[in-house]
Amino acid sequence: MNVLSDNFAMFREGFVGTVELTALSALLALVLGTLVAAFRVSPVPALRAFGTAWVTLLRNTPLVLLFLAVTLGLPALGLKGWSSFWLAVLALGCYTSAFICEAVRSGINTVPVGQAEAARSIGMTFGQTLGHIVLPQAVRTAIPPIGSLLIALAKNTAIASGFNVTELGSVQKTLNAASGYNIFVIFLWIAVCYILITFSISGLFRLLENRLAVAR
User: Fold this and answer.
1) Is the pLDDT of residue 182 over 80?
2) What is the distance between the alpha carbons of residues 9 and 16, in angstroms, rounded to a whole number?
3) Which of 14, 92, 184, 208 could form a disulfide with 168 if both were Cys (CB 3.0 to 4.6 A apart)?
4) Mean pLDDT throughout 12-40?
5) Geometric angle at alpha carbon 186, from 182 and 189, rounded to 5°
6) What is the spatial distance between Cα 216 and Cα 211, in angstroms, rounded to a whole number?
7) 161: which residues sit within 8 A by CB, 6+ positions away?
């Protein structure tokens, strides 16, 4: 217990940092992922090509490589002034958005085609059909896989510790470098913190799934 009590402020800062990084990255991923999913089912060929390229590129790029591209590439392009934290949010959010996109697109594919055709027959545009008819139904199917993806996102935040971001991974590195602490106890407390975060995400999405479930 002395590992936690002696370094409680450090653990608290790392825990809050991980929660903030997870929440902001998840928000960015959900917005981008839904938008790119709309592109992938769009009747406009250029948008479909962009969506396909986005998903293919990001799903097949290691997250560490994406972190390097963002942290080193953006300043080289003249986009300076971003903190390490926001660069990490950008990298995690963009990476996860590719997987969110596929989860949403799978949900869209479960909606009967006849509903979209009926919406078009009464004069609704593609955007109106998607926003009012298709997506509300697709979300019900997409919630479980999205929850799993956000749990993976929470664990992926540990990579940010290698890029000067304060979160649980950086706490573990700092304490490992200090003398007098058992490394297994350090890992135990870090694991407990991650379990609290992932269980919270799992509980939230289980609640959403139950609330949005269709009575059968």
Assistant:
1) no
2) 11
3) 14
4) 93
5) 140
6) 14
7) 167, 168, 169, 170, 172, 173
Q: Hey, what amino acid is at 59?
A: R
What span, in angstroms and rounded, lies between the C-alpha atoms of 163 and 71?
8
pLDDT, tens digit, 9 for 90 and up, residues 29-66: 999 999 999 999 888 899 999 999 999 999 999 999 99
Q: What is the pLDDT of residue 208?
A: 85
Within 13 Å of residue 203, how many CA atoms lie on the same side as its CB? 6
What is the C-alpha separation between 4 and 129, in angstroms, rounded? 53
Three-class secondary structure assignment of the chain: CHHHHHCHHHHHHHHHHHHHHHHHHHHHHHHHHHHHHHHHCCCCHHHHHHHHHHHHHHHCCCHHHHHHHHHHHHHHCCCCCCCHHHHHHHHHHHHHHHHHHHHHHHHHHHCCHHHHHHHHHCCCCHHHHHHHHHHHHHHHHHHHHHHHHHHHHHHHHHHHHHHCCCCHHHHHHHHHHCCCCCHHHHHHHHHHHHHHHHHHHHHHHHHHHHHHCCCC
